[in-house]
Task: inverse folding
């Protein structure tokens, strides 16, 4: 009984108390002692959906105690940008936090495509989609890269491993599974659907490969907004800059234009096309000093268009 009361108090403190100083220390000291019995638990989040969590997996355990994802500011960004009818692609969906958030925002007239190659994570993703009756989400068990074919995925066994990657890291002891790969452009061509409004990419080091496989999408008439984990800033920056994109970085809950991705310390960056009217309409109130930044660019790089 006492443990239940203390657990409830700690979860309330971690999820609701406005000041974050000290929360990490409280979590580190108490999370293992206050775990509920059983490995799996289903919770309802304030974002408007339910999640079945595996408390043996570190990232999911934090969701249970904090009541949110550690990329909460990026989730807030989605909630400010996505509109009913939009098309959102989640590349590296894992158990579906971004996917489910987007599903609630784009509505029945919109669509979400969730790419998750790992068998265990895909099963967890499918369970969470069923829990929320997400009719507007298409789960796809495939890895996006710069070629269609097969690849070896390195992952932890028996959990939805958020660190799973097609790259074998020297310090990462993992099991493997063979997965099917395709490219952004090939998937779009074969799906017959409209291009995405927004793409989130988190594939543990292969983000540049995913972008390389999407050149037609990046340079198309309706280019997507892109939220991407910057594991290789030089490669990612070069590809997106060549496609006409500008980047923005997160600092103290605000997004700022980035002159050089190599100087940015935030984990994720938001990339947009300055010649896209849609992008500028969606981002003017989000990216701090956006209009001032655009006015400093050469006219050719931020001309008004009907996109």
Result:
């Amino acid at each position: 009984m006492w443990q239940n009361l203390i657990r409830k108090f700690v979860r309330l403190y971690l999820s609701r108390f406005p000041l974050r100083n000290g929360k990490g220390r409280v979590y580190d000291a108490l999370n293992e002692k206050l775990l509920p019995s059983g490995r799996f638990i289903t919770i309802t989040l304030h974002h408007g959906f339910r999640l079945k969590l595996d408390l043996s997996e570190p990232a999911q355990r934090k969701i249970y105690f904090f009541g949110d994802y550690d990329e909460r500011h990026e989730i807030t960004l989605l909630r400010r940008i996505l509109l009913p009818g939009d098309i959102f692609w989640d590349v590296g969906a894992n158990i579906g936090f971004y996917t489910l958030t987007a599903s609630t925002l784009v509505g029945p007239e919109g669509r979400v495509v969730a790419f998750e190659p790992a068998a265990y994570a895909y099963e967890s993703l499918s369970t969470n989609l069923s829990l929320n009756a997400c009719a507007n989400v298409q789960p796809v068990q495939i890895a996006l890269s710069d070629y269609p074919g097969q690849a070896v995925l390195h992952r932890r066994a028996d959990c939805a491993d958020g660190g799973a990657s097609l790259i074998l890291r020297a310090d990462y002891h993992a099991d493997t599974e063979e997965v099917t790969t395709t490219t952004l452009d090939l998937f779009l061509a074969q799906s017959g659907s409209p291009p995405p409004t927004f793409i989130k990419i988190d594939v543990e080091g292969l983000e540049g490969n995913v972008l390389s496989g999407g050149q037609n999408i990046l340079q198309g008439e309706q280019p997507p907004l892109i939220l991407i984990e910057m594991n290789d800033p030089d490669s990612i920056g070069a590809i997106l800059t060549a496609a006409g994109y500008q980047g923005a970085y997160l600092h103290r809950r605000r997004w700022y234009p980035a002159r050089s991705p190599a100087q940015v310390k935030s984990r994720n960056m938001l990339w947009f096309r300055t010649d896209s009217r849609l992008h500028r309409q969606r981002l003017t109130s989000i990216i701090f000093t956006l209009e001032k930044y655009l006015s400093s660019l050469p006219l050719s790089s931020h001309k008004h268009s009907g996109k």
About this structure: The longest strand covers residues 175-182.
